[in-house]
## 1
Amino acid sequence: MDIQTIIFIILAAIIGVCSILAITTRRILRSATFLLFVLFATAGIYFQLNYSFLGAVQLLIYAGGITILYVFSILLTSSDGDRAEPLKSKKMIIGLLSTFAGLGVCIYVIVKHKFTEPVFQMGELNIRTIGHALMGTEKYQYLLPFEVISLLLLACIVGGIMIARKR
Amino acid sequence: MCNILILFVVIPLVMMLGLWASRSLCQVKVVMVSGASLLLALSIYIVFNYIGLRNAGNDAEMLYTSSIMWYEPLNICFSLGVDGISVVMILLSSIIVFTGVFASWRLKPMTKEYFLWYTLLTVGVYGFFISIDLFTMFMFYEVALIPMFLLIGVWGSGRKEYSAMKLTLMLMGGSALILIGILSIYYGAGASTMNITELSQIEIPTNIQHTFFPLLFLGFGILGALFPFHTWSPDGHASAPTAVSMLHAGVLMKLGGYGCFRIAMYLMPEGLAMWGEVFLILTTISVVYGAFSACVQTDLKYINAYSSVSHCGLVLFALLMMTRTSCTGAIMQMLSHGLMTALFFALIGMMYGRTHTRDIREMSGLMKIMPCLAVCYVIAGLANLGLPGFSGFAAEMTIFVGSFENTDTFHRVCTIIATCSIVITAVYILRTVGKFLYGEVNNPEFLQLTDASWDEKVAVFTLIVCVAGLGLAPLWASDLISTSVEPIISQFIK
Amino acid sequence: MEYTLLLLILPLFSFLVLGLLGNYMKPKVAGFIGTLSLVGITIVSYFTAYNYFAAGRNADGVFPTLIPYNWEWLPFGKLSIDMGVMLDPISVMMLVVISTISLMVHIYSLGYMKGETGFQRYYAFISLFTMSMLGLVVATNIFQMYIFWELVGVSSYLLIGFYYTKPAAIAASKKAFIVTRFADLGFLIGILIYGFYVGTFSFTPDTARLISAGAMIPLALSLMFVGGAGKSAMFPLHIWLPDAMEGPTPVSALIHAATMVVAGVFLVARMFPLFIDFAPEVLPWIAYIGAFTALYAAAVACVQSDIKRVLAFSTISQIGFMMVALGVSTSIDPNNGGLGYMASMFHLFTHAMFKALLFLGAGSIIHAVHSNEMSAMGGLRRYMPVTHITFLIACLAIAGIWPLSGFFSKDEILAACFNFNPLMGWTMTAIAGMTAFYMFRLYYCIFWGKENKELHEAHTPKESPLSMTLPLIILAAITCVAGFIPFGKFVSSNGTAYHIHIDATTAAISLVVAVCSIALATLVYARSKQPIADTLATRFAGLHKAAYNRFYIDKVWIFITKQIIFRCISTPIAWFDKHIIDGFFNMCGKCTAYLSKKIKWLQDSHIQHYCIWFLAGTVLLTIILLIF
Amino acid sequence: MVQMEWYLVLSTFMMFAGVYGFFTRRNLLTMLISIELILNSVDINFAVFNRFLFPEQLEGVFFTIFAIGVSAAETAVAIAIIINIYRNMKNIQVRNLDKIKEE
């Protein structure tokens, strides 16, 4: 068992436990915190896959930006201790059942499916390549989506202000 | 397209336009009467012209045929054509539409709308009888069903919503079965044509026939009030306004028998051979069961509705006997029952309009108060129980003689059971007549009531003349029908 | 013989005129039109009879069967119903009987029905009846006979229910129609069998076909006899006839005594050649049924108190005689076992005359005292001489006293019975004795006996007008002389001339029995006090009560109709229809509504729930995809 | 070396945790958190497929980046809406939201 595997197991454990806790805990602030852990662990996965840039983005935007947004909004909206009411058992059972069924099916498919031979090529993706791809207009280059996303973000900023603004 | 048959659809449509445009009650009535008279005249002309063509030696199976491609990918055509059976059915429809207009002369709220739906119903009925394309037939069949719901639900009486819903749902169920059956014929015959005459030349695979024949037969059988799918009929007829009851029992129920014969039996002889006896049992039950049920009803319309169940059962019964004479008799019975039952419903409606009750226990001695209507009712009753000289006798005797030609013991037994219905018919007819027409007047309020007005007389006398005419000289109808029954019957008599 | 068509056209025409325009004309005019057309019919039928019998016999020594008209009315492939006119000795004989009685009744009704509401309707109906009855007897085939048979039934229904405001009349008309209709069902099935196996509805089918039909012919003929038994009131289908007396009395005379009720006899006579050749085993049964009916009806007639009921049971009994006479025939040869046929027809003829006379006389009496009950009568001879005399003549005739017509015809019947079987002969003789007894009981109770003084003082009975007495006189005259008609010359089983010879022994026996019975009746009933009758009635109270209640046969029928048909069949069927079949379809509707209510929570407008279903559905589809 | 399937299983697990949360939680914010989990799991898949199956190309990486961007945008708007709702109703429980329809 090499070091990669051990790291993976640790990350997987964090992701598994924290994602479950994030959706089951009664306190919404805790749930946000567990989400943060999950996002950190995901960043770890990216690092493990040698996508350091991706990991950094994940840490910056998700863990750094979005989670903070959550915490703020939770603090803004939570009134009476944020205790989620207990679940109705019937609904929980149906939700659980369909979730497990879906999980089972997906895992079955993943395990059974014959992917083209996976080859793990170690090697850091360097930033120059990413920069070129992101800013180029050739085939396999992504200027247009990049611009579209930026426009989207702009729209969201405007929209967010519009919606949340006091009337 | 210079086919005279198309007029039967065009005239009602023009009538609907006229109704839509008319501004006063008077105009509405002018449109209805002129349209209905035109249709009647046209159908009489068609009958004579048809006989003339036949006598001139034209022995094609269908006359006045024409066909327009409607929807190319599925080979759906607007094919028209008539044989003797459809000609008499068209005549029957015209008579009943004509008398129905007079029977609803004084119908009050929303007269214009009422006649609009009534005319749409007419379109469906005529369209069904003149078309020989399965899909077109089905379309017109549906056109005939839908106005029924509104006519009963809006202008009906009693539990009208319940009845309208029940009737429409059951008949819709039937038409779903018919659609399945039609599709099975269409694909079974190689999806090349929907034309009945062409389909009859194509052998449909036996297993398809065996599977889908009962669906198709049942689908039409529901409309023909086949036991145990008849219960829409008493409730529906009881709640419907007079002219709708007339048209429904008189013509629409005949669509069932006609469809059974023209589509189910004609195109699926193998299926008939397999399922004939099962349905024969059901029809025999219908015949006797309807008659017995009628014996203890107290509502006039229920009595007549159960009597219709019995008589329409006799139609299907005769068809399933599968001899030429019995099938001729079945068509004659359709004609005869259509006229008689329309007469009955017209009279019941007129009496109900005066006494405001249809319960025979609450009425008595109407013969004294409204002699004309009462005498007509007695005549209708006698015609219904098969008195010689009226159409019922000729039709029933043709059926019984024809049924007896089927030598199979099982069929014999069914025939003998079915003949028993003539006694039971007498029981309930005489019971009814004795209870509410004869005797002393029991309700002093009734003494104020008037006898038939002129429009009612027109309706009633027209029907009586037709019933008696068919009964006294059945030869022409029988001739007309039996030549056309021949090609159909030859399909399943090997 | 083309003019015979007038026999059907004239009454039809008068029926249509009176029926359609009757309300617009005065009653007198209507009666006049009806009677006039009947006069025409009578002339035509007498003329026909004269021409027919005057034309003589053909080479075989029989009167030829003429068919002046025969149209195809309704073809059924190979078979067809024809309409036409057929003349042979019995149909011509029937023409004479029907037109005579009908004319008498028409004239009589002018007086009897005077002032009744619906006078025009009455004449329309009897015109219809006359037409149907004439059509029945001249029928060229069994189906035409059936058609007119039904028409006769319906005119009988209409006439019995003439007083349609009287509940008893309504019930009686209904009963008459339904009972005969029930019997007609047998007739119809018989016709169907006959038509199918013989290949024709005609009376003279192909012998080869008859032979090949085998056992089907006796079956068909027996079923036809059931129809005839219904119309002719044979036990146990007789129950309608006594009730049918609710109709106007002239109608009872015409329909329920003289013509329609003998249609069954006529039917058997019409099919007689077939019975003899192909179903000889059925004939004795007809005789047994006839004999039993005759006995039963005679017994009941002895104790009835309604005079029309007595006459009704007497009619049943006499028709029983005719049936017996037909039944005891054992061959087609009148000189050798086939006598009964001729005797039956002869009795039919004479009976029609004197029974019509009796009924018309009874009508005259009822007209005078306004009651049917014997208790309202008694001692009427002083008030109504003509009625008295004619009634007496008829009573003597039916009792079988020489030289009145009944003697001759009954004698032939008894002779035929003795030929068949001595036991049958003695039985029928005894019944003939009973006939004499109850007829004279009736006679004495009406004209002699204990007079109901109070009633007669309050309302003195008086003789009926001429329009009513004239038919009585004419019929009495016919009754007196009809016995001397050489009937066998005209009608016999094989058509050849048969010379009627009175069998001295039989005649003597029957005369003695008749006279004794009359004497007995005189002894019991002639005085104003009737101690013997009262004693007998108290001594045999049970028997008397049973006979008075017609041995409870009516009760049985009421039980069958009310309890079995209505209570045990129709009501359960209606219940079944309403609750099971209707209930089933309503349940389908309710189930749909219930189900949709039950699954309504699926559509609860919660996105989360929709998502669950979405996922569940996707998973399910994926699983299905994976499996297949 | 870690198998690709392990990563996929992990992401699947995460995704269904998110799904379950989305189904069962009543609070809008928690539901949003569940959605983040789902999106995150998808991102992992992109990256994993890119790394293991098509290492020469970069679509997976870029899609992940864009997805992160989009999710950030979505979260921002959603939180704006939620705050707005809270401001109107003093509550962000789903079952109370039917009032929005009526207004």
## 2
Amino acid sequence: MDKSKKRRLIYRIAAFVVILLIAAAMFIIGRGHTVYFDNKMPENVGTEVSVPYKIEVIVADKTVAKLKSGERGMADTMGQNFKMQLLVTKEKGGDAARLQVGLKLPYNMDGIIINLPALLAGLDENAYLSEFVYVPSAEEMKEEEVVTDDTDGQMNFEG
Amino acid sequence: MKNKSIGDYLRRFSVPLMFVIICLICAPISGLSPNYLINEIVTRIGRNAFLILSLLIPIMAGMGLNFSMTLGAMAGEIGLILVSDWQIVGIPGMILAMIVSIPISTLLGLFCGKVLNMAKGREMITSYIISFFINGIYQLVVLYLMGPVIPIVHSTIKLPRGYGIRNTVSLLSMRQHLDNLIPLNIMGVKIPVATFIVIFLLCLVIIWFRKTKLGQDMRAVGQDMDVSRDAGIDVERTRIISMILSTVFAGIGMIIYLQNMGNIATYSSHSQIGMFCIAALLVGGASVDKASIGNVFLGIILFHTMFIVAPKAGTVITGDSMIGEYFRVFVSYAVITVALIMYETNKRKNKSKAGMQLALDQEQEEANG
Amino acid sequence: MEKAPLLEMRNIKKDFNGNQVLSDINITLREGEVIGLCGENGAGKSTLMKILFGADVIRETGGYGGDILINNEKVSFQSPFDAIAAGIGMVHQEFSLIPGFKATENILLNRESKKKSILSDLFSDRLDTLDRNEMNRIAQEAIQQMGVNIDKDMVINDMPVGHKQFTEIARELSKKQLKILILDEPTAVLTEKEAEALLDSIRGMSKRGIAVIFITHRLGEILSVCDRVVTMRDGYVVNETPASETSIPEITSWMVGRDVADTGSSYVTEDIGKDKRTILSIKKLWVDMPGETVRNVNLDVREGEILGIGGLAGQGKLGIPKGIMGLCNAGGEINFDGQDIPLNDPRKCLDASFAFVAEDRRNVGLLLDESLEWNVSFPAMQVQDKYLKKYFGGLIKWRDDEAIKKVTAKYIDELKVKCTSTKQKARELSGGNQQKICLAKAFALNPKLLFVSEPTRGIDVGAKALVLDALKKLNKEQGVTIVMVSSELEELRQTCDRIAIVSGGKVSGILPAGEKLEKFGELMLMNC
Amino acid sequence: MNEQKLTLKDLIKSKAQEFGLPRLIITGFLLLLLVLSPIVGADLPTQISNIINRFSWNGILVLAMVPMIHSGCGLNFGLPLGIISGLLGATLSIEFGFEGPVSFIMAALLATPFALVLGSVYGWLLNKIKGGEMMIATYVGFSSVSMMCMMWLLLPYHSPNMVWGMAGKGLRTTISLEGYYTQALASFLQINIGNLTIPTGALLFFALLAFGMWAFLHTKTGTAMTAVGSNPDFARSAGINVDKIRMISVVMSTWLAAIGILVYEQGFGFVQLYMAPFYMALPAVSAILIGGATVNKASIMNVVIGTILFQGIVTMTPTVMNNMIHLDMSEVIRIIVSNGMILYALTRKTEGTR
């Protein structure tokens, strides 16, 4: 009797640990980031790099942005290992060079700006990677009224 | 005997039949294309089935329609709100939200079970009021504690005043991720295969559960508490477990529901869900004391067909779009009302029937003797 | 030397609040022995069985005296579950079955065969799956042991009553440890054929070494199946004889027989009221009262008499007044004073100046949460417009609290009700005083005909005498005809002029109150 | 001396028990709010006249609970049905062109037949389903409200003050009673002392109906009603037609609800249609429970105390809390308190449905 109880306790602890592990794993692999791609001259770097005429960013076989010089694009991604393909066209009319890029994204940044010219130039991380701080628009900052009647929603279904 | 059973069948399926008729009349009038309709219905099966399945266990345990399944829905919402603030996205986000929701659901289910054990014989009205009561607690947590006590970082979720959650929380990061995990398209109908697999698994669990000792105990408790107690079954505990299970499943169901919707209406999503699911289940031919998996799916198909078709048909007929809206609301409530009335009158009829039979026997004996 | 008896009960005593219901009971039971236990209602049979079965109610009322030994070992059961574990099985009069379950599921209720499942280690063994094949096998085995064939896959709801009874017996038989089986009036609901089958099955059990205690009012069955007959009366075992050496009339006389010497009261020994006119005539009455069904009763009540209705419990005596008063579904003809009274309408009866004191005070008799004033005055107010002040030509009928208080105080005084005030809640009174309030309620109606059911049930001796005296006084002084239903024969004999005995839902005979006890006994068991 | 003290203590204890812990907490909370309000800078007379005003609006709706509780039908969650009758009376009275205080009288008169008919149907239904009244009452309320939502759009109303301006048909969600019966009762003998306003007429009207209810409960039929609620089997054995008495109680409750909503409207100044009846049942139910009623016992005192406590909390919390911590939690508090109170009443063992 005692033995089966003991075994049950062990099983329970094991199950609990497994669930915790799954939760932890979800935290790691499920972390979403928004990655912004800049095709422009990096600031505060000190060195000059060349800005290509056009860069096409392909994430997971989908073209997420076609950036001419000075433009910005974005993509949502999950996890810290970020892979993308870049089709870089140096000059107008020139041939596109295909490039595989793999990046490690910092866990605690929601929005990340990657300066593609700096990346292409092979500068270090500080130079091409910076945090994007989300500034809510005035519209969003407007106080919204919360309706909390206890019978609210009993009548309007949008199923 | 045979005749009676046909009548009984008609009675039992009167509600689904009525709905078939409503749908058959309204569908052509609405002018919606069959393809659109089928697409919508398939989507809604994926969206709602899990939630409705969560209602089956308390019915099995004789606790009637679980109006407090909204408790689970609230737990699911809290899980999703937290997960979106942590920026965990996609399927991992859903799984994490489920893991977060389970302990909350369990606690709420435990509370609900305990309260219902104190209100035996009026479980339904009590569970209905519990859902309102916990809604108040939920609002306290979500509107005042989230922010200062439970850290919420992102301004897209938090109200600008610094505490509380916005009226809607976007779930764009996991919108239909489960539905589209295994894409399948048959003749223009998009089928959320992965969601269906999850629902199928729950069905299997429920079927398996019925075969367990606990399931058997629940059926026994549902039919006669006193006899079960005399046989040594812990009636109170069994009832509490059934509430906990229902609440936990409802929480998971709510997460599946919301991933399909793509956003949370923080203060109203849950309150509509309870009545919705119950109406659908009843439309499927279930009653307060008897429901099967078949009822769930038949119910979703019929109820949601009506739901899609009625407003359009109403607009076509009366020229006023609101009429149809109100009509479907009315029908939902009327269905529940009729089902409840039928349940109560049947209960009484069974009693008087027993009496009549006795009287008849005596008269026969009298005639013979 | 002989083997020690399987069960031995030594000097069993039991009282409920000082009311001695069992004294010095000694019973032994050997392996495979069948004993018949008989006695009138209230003789103490069921209390004795409850003690043996470890029922909660015994412990809650202060336990019992004496010892119970099983296989020479003293046992003390804390709950029925202990008793079951020790090998005692009991089939109650009321079915303890789940209506929507199959026979198999009921036979093995909460004792299902199980297979381990993956999750049972994680949560609890309640997640084991049921082993249906094994369950069917065990159930089938138990049914075969019983020797009566019932369908193990039939749902209880669809079963005839007899099969439900057999399902219960099969449940007990399926318990491996079963050594002693108590059957409490198992044949009451069975048809003749089924009862015969049951007796056969009892014989079979006895052959396999299971001892059976068989309680029934059908003495013929006892004689045909039992080894010994134990007769109880007023909490004593009055006789214990091998079944082969006795007869039905003998047992009957033991059951009802009393030492006439110890009662100093006088009986009405002759039918003195032949010349009186019939005031109430009941023809072909049937009443559907659960547990007290009445079938085809014809009965005439004479003006100004006290008619007793006696009989064993469950035979239908309680159903007669309930049916007449319209509280239970009934059919037949009732004629009062030349006037036909429709059935199933309490109001018509009350309008015809009937009154009724019901046997279940707490459910029908009283407004437990209201004051004594309300309880006493309510029917009279509603039926006869008493205690009302009328305004605007009777348009408004205002409750006259003064008058109500006065009449309540009057009856409280007359019947010596112990209470703090007329405003006290009925719930707070003791049983005896509640009963007096019920009487007051009926008296306030100034009835011509009064039905009283079990007026002394559950009340102490002092109150008993008072209640009976009050009834007699009412009869004598105001000439009210009284029909009194009671299961205590002695009480009826002391109070009534004539006594009708109901058995099997029918009137089996009417005797003057002073007739010999044996005669009553015969009538009581006639149609059982 | 000592002994006497003990009995006094016991007395207080038993009184407190009778009063009930939740009620005690709520009363304490309201008193605290009253004490706090001048401290945090809210004007006490304004607060008090607010409570009195709200009391005069809601009192009759709470009173409508009494008959059904007395007859054992439980809490009338089907209050919206009566409210709908009242709304029909109100809209018809306006449609027929009555104006000023007369329109109030006419609204009440017009509402009465609806209340009687709907109440009878409702009562008939509740007699069929004894034991399950409360749940079914809730859904009867819901169904009837949603049914009327369609009706408000479809019924041929024409009065330009009520229909949507553009479509020319279909009633608006809120209809102003300006020029009709706004403050019809309240302004009668109104007393103004500084910031303190007492709507004497409305209070008198409530008193009149409450007295009527009290008187009714002292008549033969009223006594029968209480007995039916207390023990239906007893009542039946005393020759009472239980179904009829229950029917009367339901009709009374429905009619009171109809009048109650009219009084509410005259105070509030608007007729609210469509979903509005929805929100009226639960507050009324919890108010009477807060006042000390149980699922099968209620008195006029319960109505008065309950309405004051409930409305007191509803009106006081927002102001006091806002002034104190700039946090308006009143809505949430209201939801928790009122539903918690209903839950408490439902789970008390002593008054199980018989």
